[in-house]
Amino acid sequence: MPRIALLVPAPDYAERWLPHAAQLTALIERETGAAVTLHNWRDDPAALAGYDLVLPLFAWGYQYDPARWFALLDWFDAEKLPVHNPPRLMRWNSDKIYLRALEAAGVPTIPTLWVEALADADLAAARAHFSATRLLVKPPVSAGSLGTYVLGESEVIPADVAGRRMMVQPMLGAVQSEGEFSLFYFDGRFSHALLKTPKAGDFRVQEQFGARETPVAPEAGAQALAEQTLAALVSINGLAATPLYARIDMLRGADGALLLLELEVIEPSLFLNCAADGGAAFAKAVAARL
After folding, report:
1. Tens-digit pLDDT profile for residues 26-77
2. How far apart are CA 202 and CA 180, in angstroms?
3. Whole-structure pTM over 0.90, yes or no?
């Protein structure tokens, strides 16, 4: 019987992960015949030797300990473990500086200024550059909106991000008026899409902040942007094929065109319950790796 290790956070991790991991485990075991074992990604990786496949889909919290995370990816590479998505792709995706490479490849992204040590002068320069009064600031290594803030003209930089390497973007009104689109691809094939809408008065689209997820049929432009992003990812990273799984997030800009917000090929929530096939395409992609 094939053996799969599913990387998960510690049992006391703040976000609600165990029910999601249990559902994914049941799907994989039912559809592939493999046995799935949960492994805390912060534990000794030597225990992962001998598995037929390692899936990092619940390696949540890597943003709190990036040094340990990058060391784990290095270990995967050194030991040549069968990890998907590939460690070098996840390393590239762990720092949002990857957006600059995608932009250079022609993918339309949200306009961003990259600053090495965030200070008031950077906010003033960004407001002038974007002709915007409200700015979004976030760390390049982050997940779950950690360290992400919307700052108006009179607001000061929060202490936890002052002086840090940060991204600065104009706050797009579509975040709150329409929401964020997420498209899911398995082995390069479209599976399903969601519209994630924050609760009133918030801008965060994660479920722990009260956001709502609604399955949608994506417009043609959304699929075109997602597929352009995946093609650029393959080219930039010299991959032989598209990754096992990918989530492409996008927002509508002021002119109505969709812009890439983020590409997630590490540990995205897959929302397989929203897929028309219940996740069969994902399970088939996993089985192909075995």
Report:
1. 999 999 999 999 999 999 999 999 999 999 999 999 988 999 999 999 999 9
2. 13
3. yes
Q: How far apart are CA 59 and CA 192, in angstroms?
A: 22
Nearest alpha carbon to residue 252 among 148, 175, 155:
175
Q: In angstroms, what CA-CA distances link 79 with 49, 62, 76, 172, 208?
A: 8, 20, 5, 43, 36
The label of the residue with tokens 């917000």 reads: 261
What confidence tier does 199 reach under pLDDT thresholds 50, 70, 90?
A: low
Contact criterion met (CB below 8 Å) for 193 and 184: yes
Starting from the edge strand earliest in sequence, which strands make up the sheet with 180-186, in order?
212-215, 189-197, 180-186, 245-252, 258-264
The DSSP annotation for 30-89 comes to HHH--EEEEEETTS-GGGGTT-SEEE-TT-TTGGG-HHHHHHHHHHHHHHT--BSS-HHH
Any residues with CB less than 8 A from the CB of 200 and at least 6 apart, and which?
none
- The whole-angstrom separation of Cα 271 and Cα 135 is 30
Cβ atoms of 245 and 28 within 8 Å: the answer is no
Does residue 147 have a pLDDT over 90? Answer: no
CB 217 within 8 A of CB 274: no
